[in-house]
Amino acid sequence: MKTKRILVVGAGALGITTAYHLQLAGADIGFLVRPNREQALSRPQKLYCFNDHSVQTLDGYQVFTDVSQLKGSYFDFVMVTLDGATCRTEEGSTLLKALGKAMANTHSVLLICSVGIGLYDHVRQATGLPAGQILEGTMSMFAYQVDRWTAPLKPTTNTGLHNSADIAYLNHNPGRSFMVTAKPARPAKVFTELFNGCGVARCSTMPVKLYRAFTSAYFCYTTACELTDWRGTDAVINDPELWPLVGRAQREILRLKQHGLAGKLMSWLMTDERLAKTTRQTDTDGEPIGTLAFNHFHHGGKVQAQDIGTVIACADIGEAQGQDMSATRELVNRWRRHSGAAALS
What phi and psi values does residue 155 have, to the nearest 5 degrees? Predict the structure, then answer.
């Protein structure tokens, strides 16, 4: 079987953790990064795994600092790990356009690892690639860059090994460590089989509309966490006004027309009680890192603009469709009052 070649655009926690597992599966890895990241990647990358408290190594990869350097190189998959908000900036759009030009008339597949309503359409327009060359997906594992982590470590952590690493991660759901959309079918099958070849983590597929509905609706919860100043799951779920508001907002987003029948079915099934149960289960599964601490770090900081931007966009889109988005809009308004971000739209 021919060795698969993967280009990872960005070398943050998602990119390096996914690259490690793909290399473990036998893939050749390349990174496309800003010039200021080249030096950090000139040495092997160390990953601390919370599952068994081991330190793993990612090495033997190529590093590119400009799309022009890719000329003459072929990659089966080009993984864009920039967050959704960054993808929509002028710089992000310019990069996507350059990648699309480099991938034109090839069999390379662009894997969008960021999320956000309407992001797929933006990426397709920016790259000019056909639908058969664009796959959506993201990592489910919790991962972060060690030098950016400020929360206290759990007592079970091997602090010395953790602090010696570049990346720390927890595979809290080994059956779904990564997920991709089920279409386009052939790229989804190839990537899933490749990832699963690592033997220690699994990639699963999800229908396109269900994936988009699920990832968009989730940000209602992280917005609620902001409103409670990240005091914890109980602070959100036990709030008699806020938790029902979160549930209603999620169901409104699930029912958006672009989420189709799959979204409507999810909206009927996702009661406040079921949502509370799954949320608490994630807390339990993420205990070695601390789900609250990770979400605060990730959703309360690095990708906050992506998250709240998605909720705002969902409210706007739903209202334009003539749908009741009162709960989603109220959640947005509460966030604006809480954060003083009235100018964000």
Answer: -60, -25
